[in-house]
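I hope you will forgive my troubling you with a question about protein structure. The matter concerns a single protein, recorded as an amino acid sequence and a row of backbone structure tokens. Please examine both parts with care and let me know of anything in them that strikes you as inconsistent. Thank you for your consideration; the sequence and its tokens are set out here:
***
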Amino acid sequence: MLKTPDVLLLFCLVGAAETLYKQWIPDANYENKTNWDKGAVPCGSDTVQFSAQRKVSVFVESTHAVREIRLPVDGEFILNSGAGFYVVSGQDPDCGAGVTAQFKDPASLQWFNPALWQAAATLNDLHDENFLFSVHEESVPCQYDDVVFKDLSSFSVDTSSSQSTIPVKSVSVLGKMFDSTSEFSQYLSSRSGRLQFHGSSAVTVGHAGCGDPSGCECGNSVNNQEICGTVTCESVSCKKPLLPVGHCCEVCGAIITIKYDTGFNLQTYRERIRQLFLVQPQYKSSQLGMSKVFNSQRLMEVIPFGSTPEIQVVILDQEKGAQAETLAQDIINDARSHGTTIGIVEAEFQASSGSSGNQSGSSAGMVVGIVFGVLIIIAFAVVMVVLIRKGVVKKPRIPSMPSLSSTKKNNDLALGDPLDHGFDNPMFDKPSMLPDIPDLYSTNNSLYLTQTGVHFVNPVYDDSETGFNA
């Protein structure tokens, strides 16, 4: 049962739009030691070198001593208040003999690399590092998301993709948020904008936020090739690896599929799961991602006829899915107990162990399929009748068959009816059935009937002594 503060928090979130904040992780800051090839920020005895042919925008937060700086042909320093450089004469006693420190090239970092983004439900969560887990496609900014680049930092990101534009809700750079298309276009054409954003695709802002409380589709499926091209999948050892929608790799864990009604709120439900389960010690290491997906519907499991929106909950852990399966079962039990109050109609899960469970029966899908099949057959029959009547489709000709009455007249004889012998053959008819034709069968003609057959005389060859046996 929820505690009172949790209930108040959930009510405050009701109606909130499903918009996340996606923050770019890398930076091009002078003070970040990971940006230097020696793994340390240069000091007074060091020579600082930037690649001559690289375009770079570097943020400098404070003052630094150097022996020498070799600058690129095209680049800039963004100096924080009071920041700068000074040259140390001789050797800096706190720096040692000195080395040549090379600034790494940040230009190869790609927008569609999911490992380079962090997601949070609110700005406070972003600052407090309460990050959300997402499938690969949704780790990259979606069309409804607010994109955040850290306040005191610069960066360089490659936006190349197969699409001409990358739509997002807003972009924040150096503490300034851009949600106007014209204003952000002006920034992109500035010197800093050209150095920070480069590539074949243009980032555009001003996209409307998600107005559906149940969530909206991310829209990054069109960039699946670019996203998965940056991901290296690890081998999995569970019994039945799972592949969530929008993810590039098979995983060990559990996937919950939720069917909902008009009372469901995705952000409220996400917070409910966090408050009820993810704060518990046994689930501290679990990763849970929640998003709306569209499941393709197939008639008789074969013919596609549309898609239905569902909520996909992906749970991962470090124990080959065992812990994820336990958490999935707890969530299913919660849906069974409180589904009517939170807008859940049906919930089921599948786990990498091979087991599965559901809140309600799954025969409804088969019933719907059968109903749709019958409706399609009826609709087809009605359309064909209309087309035939209008002459669009001609009725096929059926070969005529002899009627039963005529067949009966010709073939079916009643008892006592005379037999039809066709025609008389004087050569083979029996004597008793020979008609009375004197000219042909009289004894005056050369035709003789005996027990051995029929004998006649051929006048052409007859020599009055020899006969011909037939």
In short: Confidence is low (pLDDT under 50) at residues 1-17, 360-368, 406-415, 463-470. The chain is about 25% helix and 25% strand. Residues 196 and 422 are 105 Å apart (CA to CA). The first strand starts at residue 21 and ends at 24.
